[in-house]
Amino acid sequence: MSLGTLRAKPRLAVRGLLVIEDRLLLVNAYKGREGALYCAPGGGVEAGQSLPENLAREFSEETGLVVAIGKPCLVNEFHDPTGTFHQVDIYFHVSHVSGDLNGAWRDPEGVVTERRWVTRSEYATLRVKPDSLIRAAWEGDIMLYDPLEPILR
User: Fold this and answer.
1) Any idea which fold 3-150 has?
2) How far is it, in rounded angstroms, from Cα 40 to Cα 56?
């Protein structure tokens, strides 16, 4: 049996890009690996809810913030070339509605343990995925497609 026949169906996820005062909100990407890899807040899509509804829920769970969902700005797919993992992330610009990062928030799933605002110069010193995230966050109303990027191990 070839690896291609063993592959699972791609997982669909949504993520939000929140930029305030030229700082982007990022969260840690892996449970138990605080600070190793950062990404935009968001998560898996549940059937029966729109992409914006899923994103509003996931963003709140991972940050404690309520956001308004704007336009999509990036489609990124990444996979494990030696395994079965394949995920498609759809990124949206979001705007802050309420909440702050100073409260007694906890991610109900226990995945996100760190939330941080980063400037463009700070961003350059971090491991952030996907590679095209910086362009989508700070270059305005563009739509990017980032095909089949290998995951990091």
Assistant:
1) Nucleoside Triphosphate Pyrophosphohydrolase (3.90.79)
2) 13
